[in-house]
Specification:
Shape: globular
Order of helices and strands: HHEEHH
Structural class: alpha+beta
Helix content: 25-40%
Largest sheet: 2 strands, antiparallel
Strand content: 5-15%
């Protein structure tokens, strides 16, 4: 995904992680490499690419690196994904009918 596309998504979402609400930052991974902090801006696919999700605006949402890593290849609606992340961050057990994708 091109940088300009990511910037459009981050700007659309006001540089806020959809899952935890914290402000994300653009750390220019081209310069810093893979050692990005937890508040680094990422783009999450609502329907994962591994499940046929596309790199289109309607399937992309702003997420901080921490939340995006917590999700992994999680299957579910956007609402379920948010509940899953918030349950982990709050220390609660998330009960879901589906299994986390492996």
């Amino acid at each position: 995904m091109k940088r300009a596309e990511k910037l459009r998504i981050w700007q659309r979402d006001n540089y806020r992680c959809y899952y935890c609400g914290r402000r994300v930052k653009d750390y220019f991974p081209e310069i810093m490499g893979n050692n990005l902090p937890g508040d680094a801006a990422t783009v999450d696919h609502i329907i994962p690419r591994s499940k046929g999700g596309k790199d289109i605006e309607g399937n992309l949402i702003t997420a901080c690196k921490r939340c995006n890593n917590l999700l992994g290849n999680f299957e579910g609606t956007l609402k379920e994904k948010k509940a899953y992340v918030q349950s982990i961050l709050s220390g609660r057990v998330y009960e879901k009918k589906y299994k986390k994708a492996v």
